[in-house]
Prior knowledge:
Blueprint lengths: L2 H4 L16 H9 L5 H18 L7 H14 L4 H13 L1 H4 L4 H11 L2 H15 L7 H13 L4 H10 L9
Amino acid sequence: MNFLKIMGLDARRGARGDYEWGSLHGRLEGCLADLPESEVKLIAGFAGLLWRVAYSDLKFEASERDKIREILQRRTTLEADRVDRIMTLVDQDADRYFGSENVYYTRLVNAVAEEPLKLEILDTLFAVAAANGSICTREEAELRIIATGLFLSHDDYIRIRLRYREFLDVLK
Length: 172
């Protein structure tokens, strides 16, 4: 039996008929069909990472959702209705997008972004983790894994982490 079929991934192919980039990319590709493929990859990877950090403590808080919406509106070229559509898509299938598909999000970002943008993304992810006033150890561990997945150095990670030190539970 096909492993991807068992995981429910082969049933959700993107508009181009592949699942190389994960089902979130496939779903977003449909609603962002007018955008260049590189932008769709960046938005899908970025959105996946935002939710991955927010959900790393196994709950979505309203402050994190609000921060994600604000970030997507501010840091992408998307109109508010498209941001709302992305929020709805991810909320509907959040369980599917986390865990087995986590590897896709850094892969998507790495496919289209250079280091300066990856550093901005990591900083933004810390902001989401801090949206509720604290960064728990699970969120911090997830941020470290993401930084590694984005091929950022430990020094880069520490430099950004220090900007959020007042939110780190481990230092409280």
